[in-house]
Amino acid sequence: MANFNKVLLMGNLTRDPQLSYLPSQTPVVDFGMAVNRKWTSKEGESKEEVCFVDCRAFSRTAENISKYVKKGQQLFIEGRLVYDAWTAQDGTKRSKHRIQVETFQFIGGPKGAGGGAPAQGAESQEAPNDVDQQGPAKTKNSDDIPF
Q1: Quick one: CA torsion of 113, 14, 53, 31, rounded to 10 degrees?
Q2: For residue 19, which phi and psi values (nearest 5 degrees)?
Q3: Are 93 and 111 in contact (CB under 8 A)?
Q4: Is the pTM for the entire model greater than 0.85?
């Protein structure tokens, strides 16, 4: 039997990302997301529910989320569901599911910008404000065109 563990979520951060480091100096960031669902009941009544999800990312992905995303901003994440279990300080066994983020995309543009910036994922995570603004690229003259 095949197994498949993939989660895709788009929502708003419920708190600022908390960056820390593992003993190996690998960056890790924890943050929460709220994902809303709206629908109309059979009786015509508007309904809404919110699902709160804990998320964790590592390495460069963690650094970029920590640096460029704040509470209230939208984020699209792709990852997998992970089960965490631990013993609390009072000796009780605790557990929860968490999303381990593998890639993400910024949604919308930087605060105060008109319009949205192109979405960028974990493989090309330069901040929208860090784009090189040196003007238009130089064009070749017609003698340089090979056809």
Answers
A1: 80
A2: -90, 135
A3: no
A4: no
Q: Return the amino acid letter for 18.
A: Q
> How many whole angstroms separate alpha carbon 130 and alpha carbon 48?
38
5, 59, 61, 119 from 124: Cα distances, Å: 24, 14, 10, 10
- How many whole angstroms separate alpha carbon 124 and alpha carbon 62? 13
Q: What is the pLDDT along the chain (147 residues), one digit of tens a residue?
A: 899 999 999 999 999 999 999 999 999 999 999 999 999 999 999 999 999 999 999 999 999 999 999 999 999 999 999 999 999 999 999 999 999 999 999 987 665 443 333 334 433 333 333 333 333 333 344 455 444
